[in-house]
Structure formats: C-alpha cells, structure tokens
C-alpha cells in the first residue's frame, strides 16, 4: 500500500543559505515520487538522505519512537525548517506508523529498563509503607504495569542482544496500514537479524504498510521489488540494486578481501 505518494517543493518559497538549504540535494530538489510500498534512500554520508527522511517525519508529524516529541526535538529543527517548504501528497492519508532512528532505539531500550526497575523499587517501598489491603492494591498496580511492559516488549529489552531488542520493539509497535520511517535500522542488527528484519518487513507490507528507509546495508537494500533512490546524485535518481556502489564494493571485498586489506 502506498500512503504517501509524493513530496514536492512549494513554489515561490525563499530558501535561507544555512543548513540544510545549502545541501546540493536541497538546492536541486523538485519532487520525489513513491511508487512502491518500500523505498530506500541510499548514498554516502552527508548526501542528505537522513535529513530528507527527518523532513518527511516532521512534515507529517510522525510519532517518534524513543526520542522526544517530534515537534519538540531540537535536533530536528533543520529538518523541520526544510519540511515547511514541502507539499505532502497523499494517496491514502494515515496517522499510523512511526519514525525511528538507530540512536532513538538505544534510548528507548534504556528507558524501558529504567521504568521496569522503578516499578520494582516501588513494590519494595509499598511493602515498607503499607499493610493489609493497601499493600495488596499498591503491589497489584505496580505488578500490572510491569506485566504490561513485559507482555509488549519482553522480559527486558536491555538484557537481550541489540538485534533481538530491535525486532521485539518493531513487532510490538507495529500496526497495519501505517507509514514507517526508519533511519539505518541495520545498526543493531547482525546479518542474520537483517534477514529476519526483511521477513518482518514483508509481513508488514502485506498488511498495507509503507516504508521509507535510509540504509547502508546491501542485505536490506535487496528487499524484492523495492524502489532504491540514490542520493549521490542531485536530485536523487532511482537505481537498480546491482548498480549500487555499496553492493559492488561489498561483493568485491568478499571475493578478495586481501586486495583491499593489503593497502592498510
């Protein structure tokens, strides 16, 4: 399902000279069309792909997982300024979905661990403060909240590997028919977990969801029938998987690592 059909530059809008308006990508930008349920933004660091994803997230007021409220997050101020110059063209508007950066995931896992520990500490405090029915009610409330966290996110997100935690979080927060904006989801994932992520991605696409993903991972980029937009050119252009430098370089390295390592 394609929810967000395109983003386009507003006409007759004055652009400042500061970041991100000084990026070649932004200077040349006119429009991006989304023609597939899964679109990848790829390119070298500094090409503007994450900034564009953040502009989409702020422009549609996406829910931020793990970070601050998206309209209060100061780190998103440049992207928010950029989004004000875009028109968002919907095929079927949805308020479902979320925006997730790799660093926000790690913050989220820590916050869940802290909440769980606080509930355990509250239970101990109740045992010291209350007796009888009051103690039972207080403990029941704390235990119910802790059980809710466990049911949704597992026993302890922080105790699992980063890859396990990420996949659990993703499954727990997923709802069908949403627009999901992911910035480098491969960061906590081993190659095996990346394959598990692709399987999960396929299930979600089958449930009318759309994904726009910034990635450097040749494994994730290989998702069948995805649209791959290279931000190494301005404006971005669609490229085939086998034409990507990330892919050809990875293949060359794996075929003959010594030819690269001997230059170290």
UniProtKB/TrEMBL annotation:
GO cellular component terms given for this protein: plasma membrane
Taxonomy, superkingdom: Bacteria
UniProt keyword annotation of Ion transport present: yes
InterPro entries xrefs: AAA+_ATPase, ATPase_AAA_core, P-loop_NTPase, Rad50/SbcC_AAA, Siderophore_ABC-ATPase
GO biological process: double-strand break repair; iron ion transport
SMART domains listed in its UniProt record: AAA (SM00382)
Localisation: Cell membrane
Protein name: AAA family ATPase
Keyword Transport: yes
Molecular function GO terms recorded: ATP binding; ATP hydrolysis activity
Entry keyword set: Cell membrane, Ion transport, Iron, Iron transport, Membrane, Transport
SUPFAM superfamilies for this protein: P-loop containing nucleoside triphosphate hydrolases
UniProt topology in membrane: Peripheral membrane protein
AAA+ ATPase domain residues: 35-235
